[in-house]
Amino acid sequence: MTLRVVLVDDHPLFRDGVAGLLRATGHEVVGVGGTGAEAVALAADLRPDVLVLDLHMPGGGGVEATRRIRAADPGARILVLTMDDADARVVDAVRAGARGYLLKESEPDELLHAVAAVARGEAVFGSALADRLASWLAAGRAEPFAGFTAREREVLDLVARGLGNAAIAERLGLAPKTVRNLVSAVLVKLQVTDRSAAIVKAREAGLGS
Predict the structure, then answer these.
(1) Are 176 and 166 in contact (CB under 8 A)?
(2) What pLDDT digit, counting tens, does each position of 94-139 carry?
(3) Which residue in 117, 131, 30, 135 sits closest to 78, CA to CA?
(4) Please, what are the domains in the chain?
(5) Which residues pair with 28 in a beta bridge?
(6) Max alpha carbon distance in the chain (Å)?
(7) I need a labelling partner for 113 at 20 to 30 A (CA). Which of 39, 98, 163, 190 fits?
(8) Do residues 118 and 76 touch, judged by C-beta distance below 8 A?
(9) 3-state SS of the chain: helix, strand, coil percent to 5?
(10) Whole-model pTM above 0.70?
(11) What's the CA angle centered on 139, arms 186 and 111, to 5 degrees?
(12) How many distinct helices (H) and strands (E) make up the chain?
């Protein structure tokens, strides 16, 4: 079955490689972009069968884009394709409405299977994540940072990566004052007094990798 796919990733070489793979196997790449805002616009304009999105992009990022796309079109089918395998990021993406989560290190056949499965309405997690997530759920593990909003977790992840407020504001398309407020809220919820302590806690939970 030929699928209409929108592909959004801010790394052109990777994006072009995935687009080439999809086209070579009979699918139609109807739109490409490199920011969260472009993902939202392309989804609204083109209504593809599947959207394949990176998580860490300028203009809002993949989690925020997923949330906005699903709010406008609850039937939208979104596959996250990313390098980020942190548990908290998987939770954020699924809560936002993603139907699949795949790592960029996956084999081409696994990607093609995931695209087709998401188009059918199935939930798909890549083989690199499946065993770990099954153990995580079976153990009844508490959700990382359960009291945080998705935006606060996103900011904390970027703090844990070593980004300053200005860089976070640019990456997420937010005002610097908004980022300062979010960082302050994160510190309060973590019950720490500085960024260094926040980074330690975040990295212990798998963020910032």
Answers:
(1) yes
(2) 888 898 899 998 899 999 999 999 999 888 887 666 666 655 555 5
(3) 117
(4) 4-138 (3.40.50.2300), 150-204 (1.10.10.10)
(5) 4
(6) 54
(7) 39
(8) no
(9) 55, 10, 35
(10) no
(11) 80
(12) 10, 6
